[in-house]
Amino acid sequence: MKKFVLSAALLFSALAGNAEGISSPSGMVKLDFELTKDGRPAYQVDYKGAPVINLSTLGLELKGATSLMDGFKVVRTSTSTFDETWQPVWGETKDIRNHYNELLVELEQPSTNRFMNIRFRIYDDGLGFRYEFPQQKNLVYFVIKEEHSRFAMTGDHTAWWIPGDYDTQEYDYTESRLSEIRGLLQGAVSDNASQTVFSPTGVQTSIQLKTADGVYLNLHEAALVDYSCMHLNLDDKNLVFESWLTPDAQGNKGYMQSPCHTPWRTVIVSDDAREILASNLILNLNEPCKYDDTSWIKPVKYVGVWWEMIAGGKPWAYTFDLPSVKLDDTDYSKMKPNGIHPANTANVKKYIDFAAEHGFDQVLVEGWNTGWEDWFGNSKDYVFDFVTPYPDFDIKYLNEYAHSKGVRLMMHHETSASVRNYERHMEAAYRLMNKYGYNSVKSGYVGNMIPRGEHHYGQWMNNHYLYAVTEAAKHKIMVNAHEAVRPTGLCRTYPNLIGNESARGTEYEAFSGNKPFHTTILPFTRLQGGPMDYTPGIFEMDINKLNPNSHTHANTTLARQLALYVTMYSPLQMAADLPENYERFMDAFQFIKDVAVDWDDSRYLEAEPGRYITVARKAKGTNDWFVGCTSSEHGHASTLKLDFLDADKQYIATVYADAKDAGYKTNPQAYVIRKGIVSPKTVLKLKAASGGGYAISIMEVKDKSVLKGLKRLSGNI
């Protein structure tokens, strides 16, 4: 690791008055800082010499005290540069470069004798800034009423957004001009188990924007620790976004004790959409890994007892005889089983056998534990104990059986948003996992929070999510949290946070369907802060065939479901459909079996938000590559060059593509498979159907006998 401190003259230029300017290492991104006439901190950002963020003020409003908004003077400024290359425990690439120039502005508010610093880090692909509060006698404990960080847009940009909400991100995206958000927001709000929309122009981060000049902007935050989640509220008359924090039950938005700092507010910028997807800015703004030993943290490919409940309409509950449950009093051995509870020993054994036969690491089982009869919607505190199985789930036998097959079971902890109850039982639950050899848990936070009045994205809950992760680490357990706050790069610091949901995932294909362009947007938005447990791999799009009471259709082709294992980056990937649906299409299922979940290299080959994404990734420790393309309802035609392959190696490619007559509405299961020899000179022409895509496995040839009878692939597929 290299670190340099350079003279100020090399890094920033003094402007009039209290103004300073600092550029990124290449000079592409430039930030100017100044104090306005009334002493307000303000900044503006240029990209390649043109403004992308107009002059925007900064500051915090405090409860019961003079605000940290204005009346400041600059005490001093200092600059430095930093350059390192670090290796993630798992990730899209083997190495990540962290190279920035930094400007620290130290401010004093003379009227109160209080001090506040603002730290800016400028990268070639954007910037981050945060507020810092040094230890001082006049600012020790303080309560944030609101943070007023502004992002003044330079025009009425195109935006890909979801409604601002304190409790859920599970919305379909809307594409519109900024000026159109107010008129569209109410219609963009769909029902959810817990939701609190706060403004007619409020949106969530990460938000993706595109200017009329073809510049892409992304606004988000990094390293969200001991603070409230930031949303953005749009002043649509002046086209200025302003931070809007999630409140607690009393309406307060943050409790601080100096010395302390806020999370980073981030701006990623490029005139190439592929560079937005490839950016590591948010990861780089997080602290290095906190764990000395990470050998127990492993990427996971899994199947599970889940889709037959989500799509098939089967119950998580063991019996229909109980209108309510009191865990310590209810004797399930005396209850009549409903006979269709999927988390039973015989059914789970079938999943274990399927996983073992096809090379999957783990089997998720939902509905294994007592309490599901009245788990939702009752504001119930003692809802689960996370250790007691239903009578039809033999936890000891099933774990021993799984281990004998080289497979693990994956634990499921649904909290029903009763967080106090979960923390009360967490240590016992993790110990049970250790006892039976579980090393990963899918947790959930469905419903309104207990403590009542708290929101999913408030400071108190954000502290809980991190507490669950760090406590799990003491037991060498990986965490995949659903309904938690959207990620902000904390997986760098705590890499056992191996997955999150925190967006509208595949389950909605069984409810009301996702918009066909959904998976062309998520990598630009939700995935900017960390991987998503999207649960792809659905092969049967007609949900009515799983559940006669459903008339829902999954808005995707089968070929695109394969592509999502590459385009939706995650070290945690589920083959979410039922084993019997995979057995109908074993030739296509081969790609799911083959595709890696950890990578040495990633190349974003094509990208346009809301239209298409094409990605090539090199599997960890191999010379094998996998390619995926996901398209919107408009489809997409690719001219794909394989020049990322090594010239001194031979490869066999297997292409899984939409058939000519495929389409997500009318013929989603129509696909073709082509196999042949490829090289760095190969150029393939492929078409993704409406709502479709394609996937390619490119395997290094180690035994030349496998080449016999194969022709070279080229041209139209």
From TrEMBL:
Residues annotated as domain Glycosyl-hydrolase 97 N-terminal: 22-288
Residues in Glycosyl-hydrolase 97 catalytic domain copies: 306-503
Residues covered by the Glycosyl-hydrolase 97 C-terminal oligomerisation domain: 598-698
Protein name: Glycoside hydrolase family 97 protein
GO MF term list: carbohydrate binding; hydrolase activity
Signal peptide annotation: 1-19
Subunit structure: Monomer.
Domain of life: Bacteria
Organism: Bacteroides muris (ex Fokt et al. 2023)
Residue ranges of coiled coil: none
Cofactor annotation: Ca(2+)
Keyword terms, alphabetized: Calcium, Hydrolase, Signal
Presence of keyword Hydrolase: yes
